[in-house]
Amino acid sequence: VQLQASGGGLVQAGGSLRLACAATGLTVSSYTIAWFRQAPGKEREFVATIGWSGTTADYADSVKGRFTISRDSSKNTMYLQMDSLKPEDTAVYYCYARRYWTDYWGQGTQVTVSS
């Protein structure tokens, strides 16, 4: 199983980025998927999640209204659309998939937001 995250980069405050996480060895539509992030010197924190049914998404208060989590079953890929980015969004972003007692992490992609 592999989760390959991509799409990070350097963006100015107010800009947008879309992160992608391509899965191999599992079917994203059968998993609860999520994004986490870790800023320098801080613990990894929850950003967004959506259940396997895809009907309900949940977001950290700090990103609510600005970020959108989604998945494309045809591409077996999950996404995180990030709009109105702020410098405090700077972090390494990790994708995550869980089903029952089994979970997997992606390798992380760096997002840097300049002021």
Please give a handful of descriptors for the protein shown:
about 120 residues; globular; about 0% helix
Task: Outline the structure in words.
With 115 residues, this protein is mainly β. The protein is 0% helix and 56% strand. The strands form two sheets. Strands 2, 4, 5, 6, 9, 10 and 11 form a seven-stranded mixed β-sheet that branches.
Extended strand count: 11
The general outline is globular
Average pLDDT number:
96
- Quote the beta fraction: over 45%
Distance between the termini: 37 Å
Q: Spell the H/E element sequence.
A: EEEEEEEEEEE
Please compute the radius of gyration using only Cα atoms.
13 Å
The total count of helices amounts to: 0
Helix content: under 10%
Biggest β-sheet description? 7 strands, mixed
**Class of secondary structure makeup:** mainly beta
Ranges with pLDDT <50 over ≥5 residues?
A: none
